[in-house]
Protein backbone atom coordinates (compact mmCIF):
# COMPACT_ATOMS: atom_id res chain seq x y z
CA UNK A 1 0.00 0.00 0.00
CA UNK A 2 1.29 3.46 -0.91
CA UNK A 3 1.85 6.11 1.74
CA UNK A 4 2.08 9.90 1.36
CA UNK A 5 4.53 11.48 3.79
CA UNK A 6 5.29 15.14 4.49
CA UNK A 7 8.79 16.42 5.19
CA UNK A 8 8.55 18.33 8.50
CA UNK A 9 11.16 20.90 7.41
CA UNK A 10 10.23 21.89 3.86
CA UNK A 11 6.62 20.71 3.72
CA UNK A 12 7.49 18.64 0.64
CA UNK A 13 5.37 15.53 0.12
CA UNK A 14 6.74 12.18 -1.08
CA UNK A 15 5.02 8.96 -2.09
CA UNK A 16 6.34 5.77 -0.50
CA UNK A 17 5.20 3.12 -2.99
CA UNK A 18 6.64 -0.37 -2.33
CA UNK A 19 4.69 -1.88 -5.24
CA UNK A 20 6.75 0.24 -7.64
CA UNK A 21 9.75 -1.93 -6.82
CA UNK A 22 8.00 -4.88 -8.55
CA UNK A 23 7.78 -3.22 -11.97
CA UNK A 24 10.16 -4.39 -14.73
CA UNK A 25 13.16 -2.09 -15.10
CA UNK A 26 15.84 -2.09 -17.76
CA UNK A 27 19.13 -1.49 -15.92
CA UNK A 28 21.64 0.68 -17.72
CA UNK A 29 25.22 -0.58 -17.87
CA UNK A 30 27.66 1.01 -15.45
CA UNK A 31 30.02 3.18 -17.46
CA UNK A 32 33.66 3.15 -16.38
CA UNK A 33 36.75 4.84 -17.70
CA UNK A 34 39.15 2.82 -19.79
CA UNK A 35 41.97 1.53 -17.62
CA UNK A 36 44.60 3.27 -19.78
CA UNK A 37 42.91 6.69 -19.63
CA UNK A 38 45.07 9.45 -18.18
CA UNK A 39 44.08 10.40 -14.63
CA UNK A 40 44.56 14.17 -14.21
CA UNK A 41 43.95 13.92 -10.44
CA UNK A 42 46.68 11.34 -9.77
CA UNK A 43 49.89 12.20 -7.95
CA UNK A 44 52.52 13.18 -10.49
CA UNK A 45 49.97 14.82 -12.77
CA UNK A 46 49.68 18.06 -10.81
CA UNK A 47 50.49 20.04 -13.96
CA UNK A 48 47.22 18.89 -15.51
CA UNK A 49 45.15 20.83 -12.94
CA UNK A 50 45.12 24.53 -12.03
CA UNK A 51 47.52 25.44 -9.19
CA UNK A 52 46.40 24.21 -5.78
CA UNK A 53 44.58 26.46 -3.33
CA UNK A 54 45.05 24.16 -0.35
CA UNK A 55 46.79 20.85 0.22
CA UNK A 56 47.51 18.39 3.00
CA UNK A 57 50.97 17.11 2.12
CA UNK A 58 54.19 15.75 3.64
CA UNK A 59 56.49 18.31 5.24
CA UNK A 60 59.28 17.76 2.71
CA UNK A 61 57.11 18.24 -0.39
CA UNK A 62 56.55 21.38 -2.47
CA UNK A 63 53.24 22.92 -3.58
CA UNK A 64 51.90 21.65 -6.91
CA UNK A 65 54.11 18.60 -6.81
CA UNK A 66 53.92 15.05 -5.41
CA UNK A 67 53.71 14.29 -1.70
CA UNK A 68 50.12 15.36 -0.99
CA UNK A 69 47.17 13.44 0.45
CA UNK A 70 44.27 15.84 -0.16
CA UNK A 71 44.44 18.68 -2.67
CA UNK A 72 42.01 21.52 -3.51
CA UNK A 73 42.21 23.18 -6.93
CA UNK A 74 39.96 25.53 -8.91
CA UNK A 75 37.63 23.69 -11.27
CA UNK A 76 39.17 23.77 -14.74
CA UNK A 77 35.72 24.38 -16.23
CA UNK A 78 34.04 26.54 -13.56
CA UNK A 79 30.35 27.33 -13.37
CA UNK A 80 31.18 30.61 -11.57
CA UNK A 81 34.29 32.78 -11.15
CA UNK A 82 35.62 35.06 -8.42
CA UNK A 83 37.29 37.42 -10.90
CA UNK A 84 33.97 38.99 -11.94
CA UNK A 85 32.43 42.19 -10.60
CA UNK A 86 29.06 41.62 -8.97
CA UNK A 87 26.46 43.54 -10.96
CA UNK A 88 22.69 43.18 -10.67
CA UNK A 89 20.13 44.47 -13.13
CA UNK A 90 16.54 44.05 -14.17
CA UNK A 91 15.36 43.16 -17.67
CA UNK A 92 11.66 43.97 -17.55
CA UNK A 93 10.23 41.68 -14.89
CA UNK A 94 13.36 39.49 -14.95
CA UNK A 95 16.37 39.77 -12.65
CA UNK A 96 19.93 38.93 -13.61
CA UNK A 97 23.41 39.30 -12.15
CA UNK A 98 26.96 38.47 -13.16
CA UNK A 99 28.14 34.94 -12.41
CA UNK A 100 30.27 35.75 -9.38
CA UNK A 101 31.22 32.79 -7.23
CA UNK A 102 33.76 30.04 -6.73
CA UNK A 103 33.96 26.50 -8.09
CA UNK A 104 36.59 24.23 -6.58
CA UNK A 105 37.49 20.54 -6.68
CA UNK A 106 38.61 18.61 -3.61
CA UNK A 107 40.83 15.75 -4.82
CA UNK A 108 40.43 13.23 -2.03
CA UNK A 109 43.52 11.04 -2.49
CA UNK A 110 46.70 10.94 -4.63
CA UNK A 111 46.28 7.38 -5.93
CA UNK A 112 43.53 6.13 -8.20
CA UNK A 113 40.51 5.26 -6.07
CA UNK A 114 36.84 5.74 -6.85
CA UNK A 115 35.45 5.42 -3.34
CA UNK A 116 35.81 7.80 -0.42
CA UNK A 117 34.59 4.95 1.80
CA UNK A 118 37.63 2.84 0.92
CA UNK A 119 40.08 5.51 2.04
CA UNK A 120 41.58 5.47 5.57
CA UNK A 121 39.49 7.31 8.12
CA UNK A 122 42.31 9.85 8.61
CA UNK A 123 42.15 10.58 4.89
CA UNK A 124 38.38 11.15 5.15
CA UNK A 125 39.02 13.45 8.12
CA UNK A 126 41.38 15.54 6.00
CA UNK A 127 38.79 15.79 3.22
CA UNK A 128 36.21 17.07 5.73
CA UNK A 129 38.84 19.40 7.18
CA UNK A 130 39.50 20.80 3.72
CA UNK A 131 35.79 21.60 3.42
CA UNK A 132 35.96 23.59 6.64
CA UNK A 133 39.14 25.45 5.66
CA UNK A 134 37.76 26.48 2.30
CA UNK A 135 34.49 27.74 3.80
CA UNK A 136 36.37 29.82 6.36
CA UNK A 137 38.51 31.34 3.61
CA UNK A 138 35.74 31.97 1.08
CA UNK A 139 33.34 33.57 3.56
CA UNK A 140 35.75 36.50 3.85
CA UNK A 141 34.62 37.62 0.38
CA UNK A 142 31.55 39.77 1.08
CA UNK A 143 30.18 39.08 -2.42
CA UNK A 144 29.77 35.39 -1.61
CA UNK A 145 26.72 34.25 0.34
CA UNK A 146 26.38 30.48 0.35
CA UNK A 147 28.53 27.39 -0.22
CA UNK A 148 27.25 24.01 -1.34
CA UNK A 149 29.60 21.06 -0.98
CA UNK A 150 28.66 18.02 -3.03
CA UNK A 151 29.99 14.73 -4.32
CA UNK A 152 29.03 12.86 -7.48
CA UNK A 153 30.22 9.25 -7.45
CA UNK A 154 29.78 7.34 -10.68
CA UNK A 155 28.76 8.39 -14.18
CA UNK A 156 25.05 7.93 -13.41
CA UNK A 157 25.44 10.39 -10.53
CA UNK A 158 27.03 13.01 -12.78
CA UNK A 159 30.75 12.35 -12.28
CA UNK A 160 32.95 12.95 -15.33
CA UNK A 161 36.06 11.52 -13.66
CA UNK A 162 36.20 8.40 -11.50
CA UNK A 163 39.11 9.45 -9.25
CA UNK A 164 37.60 10.20 -5.82
CA UNK A 165 36.76 13.88 -5.59
CA UNK A 166 34.08 16.27 -4.40
CA UNK A 167 33.24 19.84 -5.31
CA UNK A 168 32.40 23.15 -3.73
CA UNK A 169 30.35 25.85 -5.43
CA UNK A 170 29.91 29.21 -3.71
CA UNK A 171 27.18 31.54 -4.95
CA UNK A 172 26.08 35.12 -4.39
CA UNK A 173 22.53 33.95 -3.63
CA UNK A 174 21.08 31.22 -1.39
CA UNK A 175 20.00 28.13 -3.41
CA UNK A 176 16.28 27.44 -3.38
CA UNK A 177 16.63 24.05 -1.63
CA UNK A 178 18.54 25.59 1.27
CA UNK A 179 16.15 28.55 1.35
CA UNK A 180 13.17 26.21 1.64
CA UNK A 181 14.87 24.32 4.49
CA UNK A 182 15.73 27.49 6.36
CA UNK A 183 12.25 28.97 5.87
CA UNK A 184 10.51 25.80 6.99
CA UNK A 185 12.82 25.45 9.99
CA UNK A 186 12.19 29.06 10.99
CA UNK A 187 8.41 28.63 10.78
CA UNK A 188 8.65 25.53 12.98
CA UNK A 189 10.85 27.40 15.48
CA UNK A 190 8.55 30.42 15.60
CA UNK A 191 5.52 28.20 16.19
CA UNK A 192 6.99 25.67 18.65
CA UNK A 193 10.10 27.37 20.00
CA UNK A 194 12.31 24.41 19.15
CA UNK A 195 14.73 23.38 16.42
CA UNK A 196 12.99 20.98 14.02
CA UNK A 197 16.22 19.03 13.48
CA UNK A 198 16.52 18.37 17.20
CA UNK A 199 12.90 17.24 17.33
CA UNK A 200 13.56 14.92 14.39
CA UNK A 201 16.61 13.46 16.11
CA UNK A 202 14.76 13.00 19.40
CA UNK A 203 11.93 11.12 17.70
CA UNK A 204 14.20 9.01 15.50
CA UNK A 205 16.47 8.02 18.37
CA UNK A 206 13.46 7.20 20.52
CA UNK A 207 11.75 4.95 17.95
CA UNK A 208 14.99 3.58 16.36
CA UNK A 209 12.96 2.58 13.26
CA UNK A 210 14.93 4.66 10.81
CA UNK A 211 18.33 4.89 12.54
CA UNK A 212 21.25 3.45 10.57
CA UNK A 213 23.94 4.20 13.15
CA UNK A 214 24.50 6.47 16.13
CA UNK A 215 27.58 7.83 17.90
CA UNK A 216 28.04 10.31 20.71
CA UNK A 217 28.19 13.17 18.19
CA UNK A 218 26.07 12.15 15.16
CA UNK A 219 23.18 10.05 13.97
CA UNK A 220 22.71 8.62 10.48
CA UNK A 221 19.03 8.13 9.67
CA UNK A 222 16.85 7.32 6.69
CA UNK A 223 14.45 10.29 6.89
CA UNK A 224 10.73 9.74 7.38
CA UNK A 225 9.90 11.38 4.03
CA UNK A 226 12.81 9.92 2.05
CA UNK A 227 12.76 10.99 -1.58
CA UNK A 228 15.02 8.16 -2.77
CA UNK A 229 15.63 4.51 -1.80
CA UNK A 230 18.21 4.30 0.99
CA UNK A 231 18.47 8.09 1.28
CA UNK A 232 20.48 8.71 4.45
CA UNK A 233 21.09 11.91 6.42
CA UNK A 234 23.93 12.48 8.85
CA UNK A 235 22.80 14.99 11.48
CA UNK A 236 24.99 16.38 14.29
CA UNK A 237 23.66 15.99 17.82
CA UNK A 238 25.28 19.28 18.83
CA UNK A 239 23.49 22.35 17.52
CA UNK A 240 25.39 24.24 14.82
CA UNK A 241 23.95 26.02 11.81
CA UNK A 242 27.33 26.54 10.11
CA UNK A 243 29.52 23.55 9.23
CA UNK A 244 32.69 25.67 9.34
CA UNK A 245 32.28 26.15 13.11
CA UNK A 246 32.92 22.41 13.68
CA UNK A 247 35.84 21.59 15.95
CA UNK A 248 38.66 19.27 14.95
CA UNK A 249 37.24 16.61 17.27
CA UNK A 250 33.78 16.92 15.70
CA UNK A 251 35.25 16.59 12.21
CA UNK A 252 37.22 13.50 13.25
CA UNK A 253 34.02 11.97 14.63
CA UNK A 254 32.13 12.88 11.45
CA UNK A 255 34.82 11.18 9.35
CA UNK A 256 34.18 7.86 11.10
CA UNK A 257 30.39 8.18 10.68
CA UNK A 258 30.62 9.19 7.01
CA UNK A 259 33.06 6.41 6.16
CA UNK A 260 30.89 3.80 7.90
CA UNK A 261 27.67 5.08 6.31
CA UNK A 262 29.13 5.08 2.79
CA UNK A 263 30.70 1.66 3.40
CA UNK A 264 27.33 0.23 4.43
CA UNK A 265 25.71 1.64 1.29
CA UNK A 266 28.47 0.24 -0.92
CA UNK A 267 28.35 -3.22 0.63
CA UNK A 268 24.55 -3.39 0.78
CA UNK A 269 23.83 -2.05 -2.69
CA UNK A 270 26.76 -3.39 -4.74
CA UNK A 271 28.71 -0.13 -4.90
CA UNK A 272 25.97 2.14 -6.32
CA UNK A 273 26.47 5.57 -7.85
CA UNK A 274 25.45 8.24 -5.37
CA UNK A 275 25.44 11.94 -4.60
CA UNK A 276 25.92 13.62 -1.29
CA UNK A 277 25.36 17.26 -0.41
CA UNK A 278 26.33 19.21 2.67
CA UNK A 279 23.75 21.85 3.57
CA UNK A 280 25.03 24.65 5.77
CA UNK A 281 23.76 28.11 6.66
CA UNK A 282 24.70 31.15 4.53
CA UNK A 283 27.92 32.99 5.28
CA UNK A 284 26.18 36.26 6.12
CA UNK A 285 23.99 34.89 8.91
CA UNK A 286 24.90 34.55 12.60
CA UNK A 287 24.47 31.26 14.44
CA UNK A 288 20.83 30.30 13.83
CA UNK A 289 18.84 28.59 16.61
CA UNK A 290 16.35 27.11 14.12
CA UNK A 291 18.70 25.60 11.50
CA UNK A 292 21.29 22.81 11.67
CA UNK A 293 23.85 21.85 9.05
CA UNK A 294 23.61 18.24 7.85
CA UNK A 295 24.82 15.92 5.12
CA UNK A 296 22.39 14.11 2.79
CA UNK A 297 23.38 10.98 0.82
CA UNK A 298 21.30 9.81 -2.18
CA UNK A 299 22.10 6.46 -3.83
CA UNK A 300 21.08 6.67 -7.49
CA UNK A 301 18.89 3.57 -7.69
CA UNK A 302 15.83 5.13 -9.36
CA UNK A 303 15.26 7.83 -11.93
CA UNK A 304 13.51 11.15 -11.55
CA UNK A 305 10.97 11.22 -14.40
CA UNK A 306 7.99 13.15 -15.70
CA UNK A 307 5.72 12.89 -12.67
CA UNK A 308 8.46 14.08 -10.32
CA UNK A 309 9.45 17.00 -12.55
CA UNK A 310 5.85 17.99 -13.16
CA UNK A 311 4.47 17.66 -9.64
CA UNK A 312 7.37 18.13 -7.24
CA UNK A 313 6.43 14.78 -5.66
CA UNK A 314 9.07 12.07 -5.40
CA UNK A 315 8.15 8.38 -5.62
CA UNK A 316 10.26 6.13 -3.40
CA UNK A 317 9.73 2.35 -3.72
CA UNK A 318 11.68 1.48 -0.54
CA UNK A 319 10.17 2.50 2.83
CA UNK A 320 12.88 4.17 4.92
CA UNK A 321 12.16 1.82 7.83
CA UNK A 322 13.12 -1.16 5.65
CA UNK A 323 16.14 0.66 4.24
CA UNK A 324 17.44 1.57 7.70
CA UNK A 325 16.97 -1.96 9.04
CA UNK A 326 18.82 -3.38 6.05
CA UNK A 327 21.73 -0.95 6.47
CA UNK A 328 21.91 -1.48 10.24
CA UNK A 329 22.52 -5.17 9.64
CA UNK A 330 25.40 -4.60 7.21
CA UNK A 331 28.70 -5.37 8.94
CA UNK A 332 31.61 -3.28 7.69
CA UNK A 333 34.98 -5.08 7.96
CA UNK A 334 37.34 -3.29 10.33
CA UNK A 335 39.93 -2.67 7.62
CA UNK A 336 37.51 -1.95 4.79
CA UNK A 337 39.42 -0.18 2.02
CA UNK A 338 42.99 1.02 2.10
CA UNK A 339 45.31 1.09 5.08
CA UNK A 340 46.45 4.47 6.33
CA UNK A 341 49.72 5.88 5.07
CA UNK A 342 52.53 5.94 7.63
CA UNK A 343 53.64 9.52 7.06
CA UNK A 344 51.41 12.29 8.43
CA UNK A 345 50.45 15.17 6.17
CA UNK A 346 50.77 18.88 6.82
CA UNK A 347 48.52 21.62 5.51
CA UNK A 348 49.92 23.99 2.88
CA UNK A 349 48.09 27.03 1.51
CA UNK A 350 48.67 28.81 -1.77
CA UNK A 351 51.20 31.59 -1.43
CA UNK A 352 49.48 34.98 -1.14
UniProtKB/TrEMBL annotation:
What EC number(s) does its UniProt record assign?
A: 2.7.7.12
What is the originating organism of this protein?
Answer: Alienimonas californiensis
Q: Where is the Galactose-1-phosphate uridyl transferase C-terminal domain?
A: 192-305
Q: Which residues are responsible for catalysis?
A: 165 (tele-ump-histidine intermediate)
Keyword Zinc belongs to the record:
yes
List GO BP terms, alphabetically. galactose metabolic process
Report the domain of life of the source organism: Bacteria
Q: What is this protein called?
A: Galactose-1-phosphate uridylyltransferase
* Domain Galactose-1-phosphate uridyl transferase N-terminal: residue ranges: 3-175
Cofactor entry:
Zn(2+)
A Gene Ontology molecular function term of the record? UDP-glucose:hexose-1-phosphate uridylyltransferase activity
Q: Which UniProt keywords apply?
A: Carbohydrate metabolism, Metal-binding, Nucleotidyltransferase, Transferase, Zinc
Which N-terminal stretch is annotated as signal sequence? Answer: none
The organism's lineage is: Bacteria, Pseudomonadati, Planctomycetota, Planctomycetia, Planctomycetales
As for family, the record states: Belongs to the galactose-1-phosphate uridylyltransferase type 1 family.
Amino acid sequence: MSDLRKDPVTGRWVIIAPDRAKRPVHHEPVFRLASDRLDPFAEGNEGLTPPEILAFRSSDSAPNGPGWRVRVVPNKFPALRTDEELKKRGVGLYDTMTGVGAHEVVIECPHYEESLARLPVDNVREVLGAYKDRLLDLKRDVRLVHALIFKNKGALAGASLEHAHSQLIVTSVVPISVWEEMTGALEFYNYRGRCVYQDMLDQELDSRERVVLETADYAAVCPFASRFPFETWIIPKHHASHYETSSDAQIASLARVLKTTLSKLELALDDPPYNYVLHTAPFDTPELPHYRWHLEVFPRLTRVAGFEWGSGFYINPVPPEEAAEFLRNVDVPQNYGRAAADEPAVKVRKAG
